[in-house]
């Protein structure tokens, strides 16, 4: 009986120990599988979200840059401004903004060409005035150096004949060089003629030729 009681007590202790171990083991969570599923799935979703967010931000920046470019064009190009203020401001389409910008650039090119032509004409005017200034300075200097030379020796008729001979010679070249199709063409031809036929050396040769001709007629 004593041996039976001892074995029974040991069996009860072992049974309770197994029951406690089983209960403890069942209460412990399966950390391997559950932790793996718990951490892996949110990481995939977070990576996709980051890529989607980066793509969205890049696309938004691109659209903002394009919008700013069209807004700048509409602010710079005068023809893109809204003229009818009674109906309030209206936003132009991108196609209209581009077309108006092209038209304005073409207009600026024409204006630039026109200004270059005007500058060229003004330069010719300045050159002609400089030539005339040099000629008058030489005449004045020659008169100042010899104020009494030939005084009372040449009649007004001879002076007129000299002037007429010079003008006749100049008119021949003038008539052959000048075109009167339009005022603009006339102006351009006049300045070209002055530069070519009114040089000091050319005028000197004309005057000498006229004087020799009158001298042969008088004597």
UniProtKB/TrEMBL annotation:
Gene that encodes it: Mlx
Domain BHLH: 50-108
Subunit composition and interactions: Efficient DNA binding requires dimerization with another bHLH protein. Binds DNA as a heterodimer with MAD1, MAD4, MNT, WBSCR14 and MLXIP. Can also bind DNA as a homodimer.
PANTHER family per the UniProt record, alphabetical: BASIC HELIX-LOOP-HELIX ZIP TRANSCRIPTION FACTOR (PTHR15741), MAX-LIKE PROTEIN X (PTHR15741:SF25)
Record's compositionally biased regions (Polar residues): 15-30
Protein name according to UniProt: Max-like protein X
Signal peptide: none
Protein function: Transcription regulator. Forms a sequence-specific DNA-binding protein complex with MAD1, MAD4, MNT, WBSCR14 and MLXIP which recognizes the core sequence 5'-CACGTG-3'. The TCFL4-MAD1, TCFL4-MAD4, TCFL4-WBSCR14 complexes are transcriptional repressors. Plays a role in transcriptional activation of glycolytic target genes. Involved in glucose-responsive gene regulation.
Gene Ontology terms: biological process: positive regulation of transcription by RNA polymerase II
GO molecular function: DNA-binding transcription factor activity, RNA polymerase II-specific; protein dimerization activity; RNA polymerase II cis-regulatory region sequence-specific DNA binding; RNA polymerase II-specific DNA-binding transcription factor binding
CDD domains: bHLHzip_Mlx (cd19687)
